[in-house]
Each structure stands twice: as structure tokens, then as C-alpha cells.
Amino acid sequence: MIHTKKYNATELETEHGTVTIEGPIPSEVIADLEFHEDLVSFRAPAQQHKAIIEIAKLPEGRIIIVRDQNTIVGYCTFLYPDPLERWSQGNMKNLIELGAIEVIPKYRGTGVGKTLLRVSMMDDAMEDYITITTEYYWHWDLKGTGLNVWEYRKVMEKMMQAGGLEYYATDDPEISSHPANCLMAKIGRRVDNESIQQFDQLRFMNRFMY
């Protein structure tokens, strides 16, 4: 599958000033930008900066960023699912995962997260993909936001819906391990029925196990 990446951008006025939300961004541009020290949800900032540079180098890898002048203050990543996850077992070339989304605390609640996802889906090439995200409550910043699990889940759902992702049922053991965890997905307009059936089989791999 040929991976095309058409750049899109928009500016968003917030109470803290105007930010640019843009992408997919090439790895060399990401490398030249500062990476905000409050981007700590997944690993230390310097390590995460390196990680998204590497993702941007992948043929399917897409990095959409929130930029405050020369500093990345938020981002989301799209790439093929981890080989250890069930979602990679079908080896589907048209299934990609929203692997991470993170915004510094200063810009949370300003609409930045929703705009990140809207810009991500502006590229017509996304209509060729099934885009999934797996949400696990243990990745959520409950302490920093002061929200409980269900309040945070509602915020996450609204943000994902801004990018057209909807809730999908699954028997995946990790997702099923807590009722707040969920699978969300967007099936692009040009995805064929065979791929949709394959996705359904990945969602319910334990259906016939007794």
C-alpha cells in the first residue's frame, strides 16, 4: 500500500495565545523543534521526542503536532499496531493505530486535542484506512486533571469523536479487563468490505472459544 501524507494546518486561538496545529510533519522538522518539558505522559521528554522522530520516518507513520512558535506542546501519532497486539495479527496494510495523543497541561481544555484529531483526518488518504485507538485508564492523567475514570473517559470519547472515531465492542482481554477501557475506530469511506470483515474478526477473536 502506498502511503501518501498530505500536509494540513490550522491555527487555534486559545487563552494562552495562538498555536499552530499541523501535519503530518517530516522527521527532520520534528528534530529541529523544541519538545516541551511537560510532555511526560509516556516517557521522559527527550526520549519521547526521539520516539516521534523515528515514527515520522516510517512509511505509514504520521505525526501531527501542536506548535507554540518553535516548541512542540502537543502531538498525536499514527502507525501500524505493535506486533505484540492482536490488531497486528491480520497484517492489514490499511489498519493504523492512533498510538499516542498528548497535550501539555497548559493547553488542555482549550480545544487543542479535538483540533489535533480534526487536522489528522483532513488528509483524504485517511479514507483508505481503518483507524483505531485503544484507550486504557492506566494511561490517563487522572491525578493531573483531577477527573475520575468515568469523567476522563467521557473527555476522551468526545475528543476522539471530533476525529470521527466511534466506540466499537471487542473481546480483547486488556480492554475487557476494566469497563472504562475501550476500543474506538473510524472506518474510512474507501475501505472495502473484506477489510471490514477482517477487522470484525480481530475484534472478536474469542467468539468461538469455550
TrEMBL record:
Residues 19-189 form the N-acetyltransferase domain. PROSITE patterns: GNAT. InterPro entries: AcuA, Acyl_CoA_acyltransferase, GNAT_dom. It comes from the Bacteria. This is GNAT family N-acetyltransferase. It comes from Psychrobacillus mangrovi. The lineage of its organism: Bacteria, Bacillati, Bacillota, Bacilli, Bacillales.
